[in-house]
């Protein structure tokens, strides 16, 4: 069997991704904490998350035409630049940023949407079914390595600085890293354009009862439910439990170190034939690992959840990513519609994320208590199992 390999363009794309993720890890880990310190309101943070997801999914759909019919590399660059602009505005607004949750969230979501739609399309073009798991393993590996250094360094700088001076330093460093990412992106080859963008193709796929996307769509949506809530709530709870940014940085250092090892071994071991049972094991363990929160929500139990998630997430997420992207290569017609299908993938994920956060906001508006929040995390934490139930037909070989 031919050994899976990555070519120069794949490695360069990984480098650009690493820079973007590094800048996001340095500042993105603490942006919700920065807002929380100005106003202790879970609902406010929830709406900030929803505004990002609304902008992200709309950007995917609208920018799809640009990516397919024009220079997709410019889309990556604009996305990186807008991320830098976001942190520049947060620096300028300082504590008044909480008064502009929606415009800031929409801007951040737009920047993320522009970067990730182009990245995902280029990723599909520079990989194949044979090396897609390897590429995804490297993405996870780099993300984990960045997660070790970025949040820990940020937390240390913030804790050693007076008032919000540490946040200003970290946000400025992120802007510099984003700038380097733009420069490096010019070494990626310009990708050729192909065909016309079909605006309604994502919805046509969902309407078609014979389309495999009818299974992929709910699987992605249930994946998004967990992501939407856990993406902001876990780090906030760690900060609330410790009241120290340096502790939050240490939390990400420990969990990312575990994820680094896990992504390394799982990325090397995973083959398409392993996806069925590997994703099942990952989904079950991710879900069960939320149960310790029922005993107590403190730094120790949150660390158990974080380390456990870091250890088992690759088993679940790598088949999710690879199998869905494999659907884009099942025929020449699907390959020609890869941009529209990348948009469809993001619509499904964002729908799940928005649904998860809306459930979170609605439940807390009815009964706002720490016990309610804990049970909500546990219940929503079981969504990967539901995701696997829809995914299993796509990963069975």
Automatic annotation (TrEMBL):
It is found in: Cell membrane. It comes from Paenibacillus polygoni. The chain crosses the membrane at residues 12-36, 42-63, 75-93, 99-123, 135-154, 166-188, 224-242, 248-266, 278-297, 303-327, 347-367, 373-391. Pfam families: MFS_1. It comes from the Bacteria. Its main location: membrane. It is a multi-pass membrane protein. Keywords: Membrane, Transmembrane, Transmembrane helix. This is MFS transporter. InterPro entries: MFS (IPR011701), MFS_trans_sf (IPR036259), Sugar_transport-like (IPR052528).
